[in-house]
Design goal:
Elements lengths: L10 E4 L3 E9 L2 E7 L19 H10 L3
Length: 67
């Protein structure tokens, strides 16, 4: 595991298309902005379970409905 120290306003780049931005740091908490392509799934660690529906499932469902 790579461990990095960053200050507010500094970034971490992952590959060529994902950037993490440290937006706020207080005692015990860090707020991170994530700039990534839409096709990259970004989830909090505690939500690791597979989603019940994928984005494609939801798009197909919405496309089939008539209003």
């Amino acid at each position: 595991m790579l461990v990095l120290s960053r200050k507010v306003g500094e970034t971490i780049e992952i590959g060529s298309d994902i950037t993490l931005i440290i937006t706020r740091a207080t005692s015990g908490r860090v707020q991170i902005g994530i700039d990534a392509p839409r096709e990259v799934a970004v989830r909090r660690g505690e939500l690791r379970k597979e989603p019940r529906f994928t984005a494609d499932d939801l798009k197909a469902e919405l496309h089939c409905r008539t209003f």
